[in-house]
Q: What sequence folds into this?
């Protein structure tokens, strides 16, 4: 038994051990490239940002000093910072809520059984989602051209004159909001449409039996049934709008007089126009804090009005 | 059909048409302008269509800035990033789904954590690192920092976990190692989701604006979304909108082809994202 057993151990167990080892080795082999990239280009820069925000580093200078929370104090005392925050809030709320309302309306229309050519309409409405923002921003600039643009042509037949939207401190943000709505309306319409098609027919029939008209059935049956999707679009819409950069960079450069500077554009300016790496890092960290607390807040609020399928 | 029903049908189609026209108008205007002469662009009153298509605007856009070079740069970045991210997502997703390793799941949690870190917060240290490596104005600077895959890793892991275990057991008994199981079993069983991932990654890379703007500053290393902006400034006091629009159209062209060829995938991708989310 002893001799035979040891023979078996050599023949039977060692291959099993090496097989497990091999599995570990293959795992590492498969995972390491991605993990290494993430470490160098995400985890480390993340920590580095936290640290840089506590220094007075200027990208053009070789040295930097630890200044504690001075950047954060400067930021909170900066009128420009608060203007940027207000711009971003206005842009985000305007884009997300108007787009949500419009796309829900469109989705309801596209969901009507009498509608012909539905795939064609869906294709057209969805198409802005796939486009290059920076290129479409150029197109929108020419649409907004105050002298020779199509918008001016339409407005002037009504007897008005189109102001130079990109040079107006009051109108520049609404003009950007329109582009933001246009860019994202296809995505939310298609998602709403899919959700509406998924509302169980029995639910609506039951409502009809109970005497609910089309409007009441929509309000009390369809709308609660699609609330998880509404929530999804709300959250992704907010996060997307917070991060808007291309439109501002191409169409306005943040002007006039800072009226269209959105948060990420402000961060970019501070870091890569003025080279204030320390201060800009503080701007970035505040951005992270806002995003994280927003997500937390969203999940808290969502419990109140989002209905997920089965009863709790 | 009752008159009332007919009326509501007409109103429905009218409203939908109006919406489609509003959404489609920028595309129409872009195409129409790209084929106008400069005189037509600045004609008063505005003409909606060119009298005769001025195709030479496209040649002009291609010539007046290094458009071919921009296109080449965009192509190189898009192809490398799309395939690279896919390779990362496939290997990482497979390993986390089907291989054992001590501390595997906490490690995956660490990867998921990056969903919470918006790219903007890492911008400055990334740029500093690229600069220190001497990677400004290089393909390495454009590609390597963006190469890691979180989204594809996450989706493919979910998908690979849902595949039946028996098939993998059978393959192992037939002597297939992990790499062969990944490439010859898991991958062929995931064609739809892989196609969607490739398309989404390609479109995202093609449209990327902020990162290439930061890590390049010479004309010959710009990608299309940035390079095309030069057309606006190239043409002096009054922008030659016809040439600019021709340039914008050419930037969008590969996307249009991709979209028309695989529109179902794009729409499904949007729907899947929502229903999972």
A:
């Amino acid at each position: 038994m002893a001799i035979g057993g040891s023979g078996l151990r050599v023949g039977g167990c060692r291959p099993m051990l090496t097989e497990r080892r091999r599995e570990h080795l293959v795992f590492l082999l498969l995972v390491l490239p991605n993990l290494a990239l993430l470490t160098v280009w995400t985890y480390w820069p993340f920590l580095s940002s936290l640290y840089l925000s506590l220094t007075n580093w200027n990208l053009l200078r070789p040295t930097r000093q630890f200044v504690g929370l001075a950047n954060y104090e400067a930021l909170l005392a900066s009128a420009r910072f608060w203007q940027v925050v207000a711009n971003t809030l206005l842009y985000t709320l305007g884009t997300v809520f108007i787009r949500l309302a419009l796309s829900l309306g469109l989705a309801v229309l596209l969901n009507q059984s009498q509608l012909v050519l539905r795939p064609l309409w869906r294709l057209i409405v969805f198409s802005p989602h796939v486009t290059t923002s920076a290129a479409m921003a150029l197109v929108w600039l020419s649409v907004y051209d105050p002298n020779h643009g199509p918008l001016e042509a339409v407005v002037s037949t009504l007897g008005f004159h189109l102001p130079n939207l990109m040079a107006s401190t009051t109108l520049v943000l609404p003009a950007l909001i329109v582009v933001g709505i246009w860019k994202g309306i296809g995505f939310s319409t298609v998602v709403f449409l899919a959700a509406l098609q998924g509302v169980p027919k029995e639910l609506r029939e039951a409502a009809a039996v109970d005497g609910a008209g089309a409007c009441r059935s929509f309000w009390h049956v369809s709308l609660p049934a699609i609330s998880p999707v509404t929530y999804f679009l709300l959250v992704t819409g907010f996060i997307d709008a917070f991060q808007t950069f291309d439109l501002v960079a191409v169409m306005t450069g943040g002007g006039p007089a800072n009226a269209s500077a959105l948060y990420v554009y402000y961060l970019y300016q501070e870091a890569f126009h003025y080279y204030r790496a320390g201060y800009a890092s503080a701007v970035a960290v505040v951005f992270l804090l806002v995003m994280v607390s927003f997500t937390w807040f969203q999940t808290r609020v969502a419990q109140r009005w989002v209905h997920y399928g089965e009863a709790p | 059909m009752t008159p009332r029903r007919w009326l509501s049908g007409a109103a429905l189609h009218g409203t939908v048409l109006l919406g489609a026209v509003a959404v489609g108008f920028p595309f129409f205007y872009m195409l129409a302008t790209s084929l106008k002469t400069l005189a037509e662009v600045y004609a008063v009153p505005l003409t909606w269509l060119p009298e005769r298509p001025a195709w030479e605007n496209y040649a002009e856009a291609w010539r007046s800035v290094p458009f071919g070079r921009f296109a080449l740069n965009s192509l190189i970045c898009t192809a490398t990033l799309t395939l690279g991210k896919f390779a990362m997502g496939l290997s990482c997703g497979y390993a986390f789904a089907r291989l054992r390793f001590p501390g595997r799941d906490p490690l995956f949690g660490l990867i998921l954590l990056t969903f919470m870190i918006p790219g903007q917060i890492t911008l400055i240290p990334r740029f500093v690192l690229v600069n220190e490596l001497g990677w400004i104005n290089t393909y390495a600077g454009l590609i390597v920092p963006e190469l890691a895959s979180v989204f594809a890793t996450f989706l493919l892991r979910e998908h690979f976990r849902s595949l039946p275990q028996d098939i993998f057991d059978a393959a192992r008994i037939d002597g297939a190692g992990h790499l062969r199981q990944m490439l010859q079993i898991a991958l062929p069983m995931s064609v739809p989701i892989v196609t969607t991932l490739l398309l989404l990654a390609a479109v995202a890379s093609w449209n990327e604006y902020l990162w290439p703007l930061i890590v390049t500053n010479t004309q010959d290393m710009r990608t299309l979304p940035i390079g095309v902006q030069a057309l606006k400034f190239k043409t002096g006091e009054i922008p030659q909108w016809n040439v600019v629009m021709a340039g914008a159209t050419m930037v969008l062209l590969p996307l249009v082809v991709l979209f028309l060829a695989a529109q179902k995938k794009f729409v499904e991708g949007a729907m899947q994202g929502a229903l999972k989310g």
